[in-house]
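FW: tagging you since you asked about this chain on Friday. Here's the raw sequence from the shared folder, copied in full. Didn't touch anything.
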Amino acid sequence: MLVASPWDAPLAAAPVHAQLDVPGSKSITNRALLLSAIAEGPSRLTNPLLARDTQLMASALASLGVVVARSTTGVTVVPQPLAGPAEIDCGLAGTVMRFVPPVAALATGSVSFDGDPRARERPMGAILGALRGLGVAIDTGARALPFVIEGSGRVEGGIVDIDASASSQFVSALLLAGARYRRGLDIRHHGKPIPSMPHIAMSIDMLRARGVAVDDSEPNRWVVTPGLVAALDEQVEPDLSNAAPFLAAAAVTGGSVLVRGWPSRTAQAGDRLREVLAMMGATVDLTPEGLTVTGGDTVDGVDLDLHDVGELTPVIAAVAAVAASPSHLRGIAHLRGHETDRLAALAFELTARGCGAVETDDGLAVAPGPLSGGVFHTYADHRMAHAGAVLGLVVPGMSIDDIASTSKTFPDFAAAWLAMLT
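HL: got it, structure written out here
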């Protein structure tokens, strides 16, 4: 097996000034693909993300019989009766390994799931337990990948109790399929607060746009009314979390970066960047053209609860590493179960580069210090690669061991990063 050489992270010789577009949202694209697969007619997605995670979702749905046709301007999804036998490769995509099983339960036949080695370590017990409680036949005892669902063509639905404190995706997974269950779903969360709540809000918004009734008036309870899922042609928003390293580039170099097409209203967690980067000393301006971030003379340390926007943590930690004062990032213990243990990875990599970074029970404490170059390891995690690229702008001699990991959600990241600097 050939191992790629580390990628030399470009150093910014001057404050970065750039305007750019980022690809479509992964979170919206994969939800839209799934809902289109169980809709009452064909749907067309414009500006969908075309990356590993979304290709895995499209392939998973196609293996169940759905027609997913790609063109130069988008993707058309034509629902078909769901059927196995099928083999689903989840890769390292949480949206595939968690969102597809509740839909696969509606298929007739056997549907097997597996993924990358790290995917077998990611939490899955909550969704598998919920499906078993609804009468879905799954490998006895399986609580993680790999597993097999024996679909009967229908799911009765009803009340389902779940502990979604490890991931909001467990709730979204059930919400997205619930209208197709005979009695709908009454989802009740019992446990610690759910992380990344904006992603649940996104799922509900997208369901309502397709005519599905969802009652979320009671905390920790979501009631999905059974019925049809409408076909819908939709424009996918830019991926705001993928914009994070580019906007961070303005903050750490004292430059100015405009991300075009930033929505005025969105459920994406990445929209919190407007608040976070302002707290770190940048000027943030949202106009009809997009979002502009202009760095200040210094970067300010912060004390932040990132419970709802944990995916932003690696880039925020990288910015914190070059701040003028310490930072505390809280509410993100759940990141230990992401593509890698992000808290352990960040603590190790930042400390190796010269700043003090220490794990806490629910987060990370970052004490800036003189930084030095070296290899920044990604652990096959695209967000870690983003963090390394941000540091590389201001730390000479930085390299990233696996820049290809960014293909998970941004296939042309390296080219876009270099273009930002020219």
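FW: The chain has twelve helices and 23 strands.
HL: agreed, and The first strand starts at residue 7 and ends at 8.
FW: great, closing this out.
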